[in-house]
Amino acid sequence: MSLSGNVRRLRAAALCAIALSGCSYGPGQLLVAPGAYDAYHCKDLVLQWDQLNKRETELRANMSRSSQGGGGTVIGAMAYGTDYQTVLTQKKMVQQEAAAKNCELVKSFQSDQTVR
User: Fold this and answer.
1) Is this model's pTM higher than 0.85 or not?
2) Which domain covers residue 72, as residue numbers?
3) Model confidence at 21, in pLDDT bands (50, 70, 90)?
């Protein structure tokens, strides 16, 4: 391989790094289609939010179990890290879409009664 070939590869890698550095979602963004939640209505966003929270909890538990089983944190990250990052990215996208549509993802309980 020539020196100019290596320089081209380094430039390409640098351009990719620069392009990805402006991403606000993180590494999971590469696995989630932009605008994936554009057509969702508020009730659909709430359902998706609940599912994503359950999946995040499940993945976190799996990562914790795998790190305790002698494989260490690295094994857990390798096995579940990509899915976990994707779920976090999806949650951010759902939050942004819900905010844009003025949806309430978590019901806030309000009473018409005052406590005395």
Assistant:
1) no
2) 26-100
3) very low
